[in-house]
Design brief:
By secondary structure, this protein is α/β, with parallel strands linked by helices. It has a single domain, classed as Alkaline Phosphatase, subunit A (3-Layer(aba) Sandwich). The chain has twelve helices and 14 strands. A hairpin with a 2-residue loop joins strand 13 and strand 14. Helix 2 crosses helix 8. It is globular, with a radius of gyration of 23 Å. The two termini are 27 Å apart.
Length: 495
């Protein structure tokens, strides 16, 4: 088993020496970047694999779309005619079912109409109908199982491969293994919901025991200051004062490093400062979508850009905010960002602003799903017309599904027993389905052979040219990996 150290020693002397001798702090580094003479960028670009992949890759980059709160598979993707036929009848699963809240009501058909789309004839609900135009590029997995119906733990599992904190996010693993393919932007970027963080917040994309430089960089595109602390906001900060402060910081860093040889945390912090300097030059341009053609902005659902919205959750608002993130994601990928994570839904707001639809599926899922589908369909079309979809993997994720029985009169309870993910592009087959749920959408049809998140992660790494069993880091005496001790390739969806 290959064991890659998270602390490449080759970076330490050159990085520290450069910063300590430059005397120019971040300004000097930024100037070097402008002149095209930044020696640090080349060092930072080498990931733990050193550019030597385990096998030829099919994908270069990944976009993960994460629906926080548990999107209902049977109201979006997983068509169940049986529920149409038995709607309103008392539910009977043939076994005792422990639910998250208050028991199982009658069988309940989808709250949205399903229709066939594409040459594949895949049924999608009206809530995600914009994706019908690209359904033949998508590979569905309808037999995914979780381990818990608790949002925070289930979110950790999908985001990091473990149910508890303290493990790197999948984007951090990819950033660590492959390194950067750009000089001036992070390898791993996170675009949260505009209303706030999902369950666990930044812990979902933290680096944990990997180098701090591999963690996700959070950007809120709709805010006046999208990247916190990137630029000085106070008027009293002068160029001279900033330079003096940075020179003092360099001296302190040198003293700290001399006293603690072998400690990589300082190097990671310095690397983040270097990146921040380069981002000051490049990030504003990437985030500025004003020069995008009008038809592109419209395709992404931005025709109401700058408008005002009422207090109730609504389609135009969801379309604008999710579409903006999708468009910026495409721009980030074009500039060489390797992994972009887009989130929909914040943590347990009320009225609902996430996918946790215990009270009213139509009210919550309707706008969230349609807004997501508009932006996602535009993203797939845009990547395809730019010849980028073939080596960009799109992964749609949620933490678990929802029950085929009703909760109250209009909602659904948590269902960790089966749910849906789908993938698109990046070496996957289009218009296929791998794994089915049962006639109710309650559990996998083949209960002995479900798909687990480890299989998704293993397949994603495989498409990037990485053997998931060989990408390991020793932590606390254990060779840790994204897939823990599990993971099988989903061969049915690999082109």
């Amino acid at each position: 088993m290959m064991n890659h150290s998270p602390n490449p020693p080759i970076l330490k002397p050159s990085r520290r020496e450069f910063l300590w001798n430059s005397g120019g702090g971040l300004g000097g580094i930024a100037l070097a970047s402008m002149l095209g003479g930044d020696p640090l960028a080349a060092n930072a670009a080498n990931g733990a694999l050193g550019g030597v992949l385990h096998h030829p890759p099919k994908a270069k980059r990944v976009i993960q779309l994460f629906m926080s709160g548990a999107a209902s598979h049977i109201d979006l993707w997983d068509y169940k005619p049986w529920l149409d036929e038995h709607h309103g009848e008392p539910s009977d699963f043939g076994e005792k079912v422990e639910l998250f809240q208050n028991g199982a009501g009658p069988w309940t058909k989808s709250y949205f109409q399903f229709r066939p789309y594409g040459e594949s004839g895949k049924h999608l609900s009206d809530a995600v109908s914009p994706l019908g135009a690209v359904v033949d590029d998508m590979a569905f997995i309808h037999n995914l199982v979780g381990k818990t119906g608790v949002h925070s733990q289930a979110t950790y599992l999908q985001a990091t491969g473990f149910q508890r904190p303290g493990f790197p996010g999948m984007g951090s693993w990819i950033s660590y293994a492959l390194g950067s393919i750009n000089d001036n932007l992070p390898t791993f970027v996170v675009l949260p919901d505009h209303r706030g963080y999902a369950s666990n917040g930044p812990k979902n994309w933290g680096s944990a025991f990997l180098p701090a430089s591999s963690q996700g960089t959070t950007i809120f595109p709709q805010r006046e200051n999208p990247i916190e602390n990137l630029t000085a906001r106070a008027r009293f900060i002068t160029t001279e004062g900033e330079q003096s402060g940075l020179q003092l910081l360099n001296r302190i860093n040198k003293k700290y490093a001399d006293q603690r040889p072998g400690d990589s945390r300082l190097d990671a912090r310095i690397e983040s400062y270097e990146l921040a300097a380069r981002m000051q030059l490049s990030a504003p341009e990437v985030l500025d979508i004003s020069k995008e053609p009008a038809h592109i902005r419209k395709m992404y659902g931005l025709e109401n850009e700058g408008g005002t919205y009422g207090p109730e959750i609504n389609i135009p608002e969801e379309a604008e905010y999710f579409g903006r993130k999708c468009l910026i994601a495409r721009r980030l990928l074009e500039k060489g960002v390797r992994f972009v994570q887009i989130w929909s839904g914040n943590d347990n707001g009320f009225p609902r602003r996430n996918w946790d639809s215990h009270e009213d599926i139509s009210r919550d899922h309707g706008p969230l799903a349609k807004g997501m589908a508009i932006g996602t369909a535009a993203l797939i079309k845009d990547l395809k017309q730019r010849d980028m979809l073939k080596d960009t993997l799109v992964l749609w994720t949620t933490e678990f599904g929802r029950m085929p029985s009703s909760q109250g009169s209009k909602g659904r309870d948590h269902n960790p027993f089966v749910f849906t993910n789908w993938l698109c592009g990046g070496g996957t087959k289009g218009g296929v389905t791998a794994g089915e749920s049962d006639q109710w959408g309650f559990k996998p049809l083949d209960r002995e052979n479900p798909t687990q998140v480890y299989d998704i992660h293993a397949t994603m790494l495989h498409l990037l040219g990485i053997d998931h069993k060989r990408l390991t880091v020793r932590n606390n005496g254990i060779d840790r990996r994204l897939t823990d001790v599990h993971g099988q390739l989903i061969d049915e969806i690999i082109a």
